[in-house]
């Protein structure tokens, strides 16, 4: 029922089902922490992926290093969001999740500023960024239910 109040019900359900704890969650607060945790894991794995891409000898090596840093920052923002959720400070949790979403978007922006074909935004990286942004959007939709709760 929590996912029915999000902007993308099928995505929300699939994302939450990827974590077995969601089956035992009995309130919106628990589900919001799970959604942020899933986002955190994706930010971390994407940072590791981008770091690994710096070992390739291409014109985009420096860009991947910067992207890895942006995804590390996204992970830190999501860690702060989890802390804010634990303290029931939902406005701050939303702020931190939005920051993570912005960090995920920043990598694509870096690539788009380069006009060189050698620095084209790799589709696999774009897919990871899009997925993290969607996870963060779902987390925001769920946390918003706590903000709007009476």
Automatic annotation (TrEMBL):
Q: Keywords for this entry?
A: Disulfide bond, Signal
In alphabetical order, the GO MF annotations are: enzyme inhibitor activity
User: Superkingdom of this entry's organism?
Assistant: Eukaryota
Stored SMART domains:
PMEI
Cite the Pectinesterase inhibitor domain residue spans from the record: 1-142
Would you identify the family this protein belongs to, as annotated? Belongs to the PMEI family.
NCBIfam families in the record: PME_inhib
What PANTHER family would the database entry show? Answer: OS01G0111000 PROTEIN, OS02G0537100 PROTEIN
Protein name as it appears in the record? Pectinesterase inhibitor domain-containing protein
Q: Which organism is it from?
A: Ensete ventricosum
Upper classification of the organism: Eukaryota, Viridiplantae, Streptophyta, Embryophyta, Tracheophyta
